[in-house]
Amino acid sequence: MSADHYVVIGNPIAHSKSPAIHARFAELTGQQVDYQRLLAPLDGFAQAVHDFIAQGGKGANVTLPFKLDAFALATELSERARIAGAVNTLKFEHGHIYGDNTDGIGLVADIVRNAGVNLHGKRLLLLGAGGAARGALLPLLQEEPASLTIANRTLAKAQDLQQQASSLSDRCELQACRFEDLQQPFDVIINATSASINDDVPQLAAIVFGKTTLAYDMMYAAAPTAFLRLAASHGAQCRDGLGMLVEQAAEAFALWRGVRPPSTPVLTEMRAALQASL
């Protein structure tokens, strides 16, 4: 049986770990999958997708900087993709391009299943109000936290996201503020800003961190990010975004293949490889 073809599309793309993750998923589930990287020109995303479809491609993951392009290209959207305003997973079937966003559900799966932290009834703090935060919004609210505070460098963007959240849930207390206005502890703090790329951290008061606080950075690296170093210095429990990467990939694989791959062994292998690179 010949393998079905999938790609991860981005620019740059050589660094992507997605081919290794999906190769392991295919091995563990007995699926015939060929998964490659595809470098698309910055002004040629749609053409690259249509060319891949014409060659028999079945689906694609989408990474920076094309998640908004993928949203625009999709002919049908999942609810979470529509709310996120961005697409990271495409499925090609019967002439349609189905767009989904698995980032937020991957985040929640890693926190709840892998880290063992129940979000129901908890006080959540979401740092940032950009695309990563929007992608997390619906899956976080579906866990029915007691409260969700959205903090951002500019208050207006945080308030815009708060307003969007209010249309999704009437059972969660919602607040918006600037980073420097935070003056209370939280159960779970999620860094959805891009600050970690530059080894920077939002301006946060020590009081937001407690001994039982889970500090979660959507970014991951071989060494702890500036945000996780700050959180650890105040006694919080820390977790990076490697599990989110694996879990969002598992969600995409399940959408494409109708089979949910086991994520735990893949995450364990990825973590070991990351540690070995230190």
Q: Secondary-structure blueprint of this entry?
A:
Blueprint: E1 4-10, H1 18-29, E2 33-39, H2 45-54, E3 59-62, H3 67-73, E4 76-77, H4 79-84, E5 89-93, E6 96-100, H5 103-114, E7 123-127, H6 131-142, E8 147-152, H7 155-166, E9 173-178, E10 188-191, E11 214-217, H8 226-233, E12 237-239, H9 242-257, H10 264-276
Parallel strand pairs: 1-2, 1-3, 4-6, 7-8, 7-10, 8-9, 10-11, 11-12
Antiparallel strand pairs: 3-5, 5-6
Helix pairs in contact: 1-9, 5-6, 5-9
**How much is the average pLDDT?**
96
Runs in which pLDDT lies below 50 for 5 or more consecutive residues are: none
Q: SSE string, helix = H, strand = E?
A: EHEHEHEHEEHEHEHEEEHEHH
Query: How many beta-strand elements?
Result: 12
Distance between the termini: 40 Å
> Helix count?
10
Query: How does the helix and strand content classify structurally?
Result: alpha/beta
Major pleated sheet? 6 strands, mixed
Strand order of the largest sheet: 2-1-3-5-6-4
Portion in strands: 15-25%
What oligomeric state best describes the polypeptide chains here?
single chain
Helix amount: 25-40%
Using only C-alpha atoms, the radius of gyration works out to 19 Å
Q: Quick one: overall form?
A: globular
